[in-house]
Every structure is written in structure tokens, then in C-alpha cells.
Amino acid sequence: MFIDLRDRSAVLQIVVDPKSIPAAIRVGLQDCIRAHGTLRERPEGQRNNKMITGDVELEVDELEILNRSKVPPFVVESEVKASEELRLRYRYLDLRREPLRKAMIFRHRVVSAMREYLNAKEFIEIETPILTRSMPEGARDYLVPSRIYPKKFYALAQSPQMYKQLLMVAGFERYYQVARCLRDENPRHDRQPEHTQIDIEMSFISEDDVFKLIEGMFVHILKSVLDQNIKTPFPRFTYAQAMEKYGSDKPDLRLGMELRSYIDVFKEKDFVPFKAEYVSGIIIPGAYNVSRKYLDELNEKAKKAGLAGVYWTRKDEKYSGSIAKLIDESIAKQLNLRAKEILLLVSGNTKALAFLGEVRKDLGRSQIKDDKGFNFLWVQDFPLFEIDETSGKLIPCHHIFTMPKQEDMQYLETEPLKIRGRQYDLVCNGNELASGSIRNHIRLIQEKLFEYAGMDPGKYTMLLDALDFGAPPHGGIAPGIDRIVMILAGLQSLRDVIAFPKTTTAQGLLEGIPDEVSPEQLKELGIKFEGLI
Predict the structure, then answer these.
(1) Mean pLDDT score, 416-440
(2) Checking DSSP bridges between strand 423-428 and strand 431-438, what pairing results, if any?
(3) 198, 479 in Cβ contact below 8 A?
(4) Of 501, 518, 531, nearest in space to 89 by CA
(5) Which of 186, 232, 381, 400 is the most buried (most CB within 10 A)?
(6) Which residues contact residue 88 at a Cβ distance below 8 angstroms, ignoring those fewer than 6 apart?
(7) How far apart are CA 142 and CA 99, in angstroms?
(8) Beta strands of 68-173 (E only): which ranges?
(9) For residues 76 and 158, what is the distance between their CA atoms, to the nearest angstrom?
(10) Cβ of 500: how many Cβ atoms within 10 Å?
(11) Which residues contact 509 (CB under 8 A, 6 or more apart)?
């Protein structure tokens, strides 16, 4: 008999003679067994180059069934047909599959490489509290009622933001932590209610110091874990440059089709839609075989997004499309379209750039067939504030604890929408991997930013008070471990790199959560439900 024996390291084929070891006949799928014998080379013609251990097998002389398994709810193998819901319900079985086993080990190696690098750079690892006070940072807090202090609550930390800034005030000028972050956000396919980041903070630094440190960390990670070399420094774009060139603040450099302004090309034409702040476009290669139906669907999507629509022309024997009548000899020369290429234009405000960026992303990613490596870049100088479309109020665009750029301090009292922050994102292949900023270490400036954002400064007294005691200039960044592992491992779902993830609707199918609690527990906490909200 041949039995596949699995442990964390690999699968090993064992060979058993059921005549001498009758227990082998009773071995079932997923049973836990102990096997003892002689490791030998497999006979010629029986080696399996698809297995790490494919050159050898164990000839068994003793076998014991330590614990029997029920019939598993799905077949535990690399390519599984069971639904994700079923696999999440029995996650401990799903984790026995080779792809997930490899992902967990890969994650361990990535985090170990991060720690190795930061330790070598004289950072120290300090743990900060999970139970804290409610200090909203852009998402809802998870609240924890206090039994000892009725009607009062703790909040689960959305991030270590306050604490790491306090550590800078305390004089620990190089800190890091593998930190759990808990945020009660609306469900989304790439979001988990709890995620892990490696939190990094430093004193007496500039943006260049952060960029150099993090680039070095990724050089170390990719070399240690994937034996790959990457070039540094990474390209840098301001937020304005990224939006105008790619229509996104997390552009994917692999896709080509960069946005270009066509205002000057059509400025002599009496065409009302092109008398706008932006007239931007992309050239779609002829190989993409874009249909007229697709272009019509894009036009409807643009209108639903609050734009006038999309405008296009195709170069065949002559120009066709919705703006073909605008193409004269001079414009044709400037466009320089090749056969079958399509010029797709959108006009309006920054919404037009974002819409075109989504079109670029959707088209470009559908054409990526070969691995084009990891394309890292920095995006910096984000606006500090924006107008919320629903409420019409001023809200933080990125991070409220950010120091304004020095040249924009003139707008602090009068025009907050003109203020850019000293904040930055690390992007790879169209995914945001890390976000950070040079922090605000001046109390008066921080209080002013709270005022603009309509945030209660009383919620942040521990930080504001600390800034009064000689707080040094400081800054940091928080790379998201889940997403980094997913991208480096070439996976498509965050759930594949988290041991016990929640669903896209924030449910734990394994644990059966969220769950009701007993009336006795509620009474002990002084909580009574008046009715459904």
C-alpha cells in the first residue's frame, strides 16, 4: 500500500505491507498516524518530480493510528472544488492544503525579514495597547463595554497612531511593531475588519529618510524570500502628477496607456465639452480589439459618474467615432494614431481623470499575460482636506496627523483646501502597500487641523498634551503585511494569506461570529436592547 503522509514541511510517500502491518488497511483520509521505517530511494521510473520528496519513500516497519478522522467535508488537496464558505467553516482542514500551507510559511518569512532588517537598523520593537479610548481615525471604532465602570467603554485600537507618536515624545526615536489594527468599516472584497501592519516611526527625519529606509527593507525582503533583486530608488510622483498621468493615486506602471492632456490639441475647435478643466485621453492599442458595444457601455458609465460622456475616434482607412468630424489634417498629425488604435477622451474636473484611470486599469490588466515583476513607486504631497460629497463638509483626505508642507502654511487660516500634507504612499502593481507621513509635532497646528475636520480635540488630549513637552519632529509609515504578502506571493485574495480570516461581510464562519451573548452577560455589563436600530 502507498500512503501520502503530510506534515508542515511536505508530503512523503510511505510504503506499507498490509500483510505484516494489518493496521494499514484501516487508515483513512486525514487520519493522524505515526510511521517508523527506513528512508530509501524510489525505484527507477517511480520518481515524482512534482513532489519535494519525490526521489525517496519510507519503507514502514511500524505504523500506529494516533487519531481517526471523520469523513472530511471536502477533499483536502491543492486544487479544491469546495466553496470558499465551506472551506472557511473548516479552516483548520483548509490550512492543510499545500497552497495555504505555503502561504502561511511565506508570510512568516516575509515578517521575519522585516524584523531582521529593522533590528539591524537599530529599531526597537515595542508593543502598544489594543484596548484604548475611542479616537476615530477615519473609520468606526469597535467598542468594548467596561464591566467595572458601567456606561463606559474601551475601543479597540484602529492603529497604534497615538502611541507611536507618544513613544517619539518619550525619546524612543526608532520604533517598530507588528501591530493588529481593528476597524469597523463597510464590507469590501479586499478589506478585513482586522488586519496586520508593521508600524514604523522615527524622530528627526525627512521624507527622504523614510523612502530610503523602506526601499532598503523591500530590497532585503525580496532578496531573502524570493532571491530577487529590485532597483532603487523607486520612482516618485506627486499626487497631482499621478492623477494627471495615470488617473489614480495608486498607479500600475505595468499597464502602459498613460493619460495625456488634449486641451491644446482641440483648443481651436468650437466643441463645448472640450471647454473644461481637463480634456484627457488614452490611446488604446489596436491589439485590444475594443468593440463599439464596449465604448457605448463606457459612455453610459461616464454619465452615471456625473460626466458628460466619453469621446472617441478610431484610425482605419479614415477616422470614425463620435469626434471623427473634429479630426482635420492638423489634429490628425498631432494625434499620430496608428491603424486600429482608438483615442478615448473624457472631459471635466478631476472626476474625469479618475474615470479614465479606471478604464486604463480595467483594459490594461485584462491584457497582462506575463509576469512583469514588481513595479514600486512613491506617491506624495496629497491634499490634506477634501469636500465630502454627501455632507458637503471638509474631511481629512489622507491623514489628519500630518504636518502641512511648509510652502502651504500660508493657507492654514484661510484656504484649507489648498494645503498639501507631507504624506506619502508606497504603491506596487496598482496596490497601496504602505501609507505614512511626517507628523504634526506642533500643538497649535494640530488643533487647527482638528477644527477644520470637525473633530473633537478632547478625544485626543493624551497626544495634544504630550506635544507640549518638547515633542521632536517625527514621522513614520505603516506597511500592510497582509497585502504585501499577497502581492509578493502572487495571490489574489487577502484571505489566502491570513490564517483565520473573516468573510467579505465581516463574518467568522469558523467561530460563528458575530454571535449573541447571554442575558446574564448583558446584565453584568448594564446593557439592554431597546429595539433594533
Answers:
(1) 95
(2) antiparallel
(3) yes
(4) 501
(5) 400
(6) 94, 495, 501, 503, 509, 510
(7) 32
(8) 124-125, 131-132, 143-145, 153-156
(9) 36
(10) 13
(11) 85, 88, 89, 503
On the CB side of 150, CA atoms within 13 Å amount to 7
| Residue 391 in this model has a pLDDT that exceeds 90 | no
Contacts of 386 (CB under 8 A, 6+ apart): 394, 395, 397, 417
Q: Mapped to the 3 state alphabet, what secondary structure does 428-497 carry? A: ECCEEEEEEEEECCCHHHHHHHHHHHCCCHHHHHHHHHHHCCCCCCEEEEEEEHHHHHHHHCCCCCHHHH
Percent of the chain scoring above 90 in pLDDT: 80
Strand-pair category, 174-182 with 124-125: parallel
Q: Say how many CA atoms lie within 13 Å of 260 toward its Cβ.
A: 14
Residue 339 burial by CB count (10 A; 0-12/13-18/19+): exposed, middle or buried? exposed
- The greatest distance separating any two alpha carbons of the chain, rounded to the nearest whole angstrom, comes to 93
Give the C-alpha distances (Å, rounded to integers) separating 326 from 275, 331, 361.
Answer: 14, 8, 27
The DSSP code for 322 is: T
Higher pLDDT, 136 or 342: 342
Coarse DSSP helix, strand, coil percentages of the chain, rounded to the nearest 5 percent: 35, 25, 40
Q: Which of 45-49, 177-181, 325-329 has the highest mean pLDDT?
A: 177-181
C-alpha cell at 194: 482586522
**Mean pLDDT score of the chain, rounded to an integer?**
93
